[in-house]
Structure prediction request, 279 residues.
Amino acid sequence: MELIFGFLTIFLIGCLSLISIFLISLKEKTLDQILFIIVAFATGAILASALFDLIPEAFHHLEELNENSTIIPENLLFIFIILGFVVFFIIERFIYWFHGHAHEMDEKIVCYVDMTETQGESIKKGSNIKNFAFLNLIGDSLHNFLDGIIIMLAFISGFRNGIIITIAVVFHELPQEIGDFGILIYGGFTRKKAILFNFISAMIALLGGLFAFLLSNTIELFNLFFLAFSGGGFLYLSCTELMPELLKEKDLKKSIIQTAIFLVGLIIIISLVILIPHK
Prediction:
């Protein structure tokens, strides 16, 4: 049953790439308000997922392996966590470089605004697609592949873990999918092609899920490695990718609201860890 939930969840999260059809038509102010909430919640949810679910689950798996006469030092677990942090840093920097350099206008990232007004010329060309758009697709596909592994492995290790990780991934993917759509438009894709290729990139996560399913029961250290690896990756996303976005807010009232939403994300994930029993 967990496997069915895993693949279904990965598919549905991949369908989030289609949300750009709706969101890209919204006014910039409205979209900013939506992203304001999503990013704040995602920061808390992803941080709590790393510290209260993924990393503790990795320690639990380490204990199970050592009980079965497999001697694995705890230091190895922390190496896996650091590796996840570093790999996510490389992938996110790779994607962010293209987002930033392709869409920076007057020191403002506009990857989610009305592209028909700001980049109409690129949309009309369609056939003259820039290299950075393809490179961004490659980086995003790798990111989605890792997401698929993380989600599937979470469901394999327990339904509770699957639910928690799904919440964290969903709220991280929403703003990223909007940005990915914007960069494809800027890079010369037509709207239809941008939607199609962004969707195909999102579906790469299914291959990650299949990869995790096939190897989780055949390689002894696979589950331990990717649980710890994912924990490190989530620490990176929350503390160095998302939290700095919150710190950019200078308005006191908005900062208080953002902090409250951040705490709600934390509390919801911690509550799920406490209330839903581990298998």
Q: What stands out?
A: The longest helix spans residues 28-67. Residues 2-11+34-67+89-275 form one domain. The radius of gyration is 19 Å. The chain is about 80% helix and 0% strand.
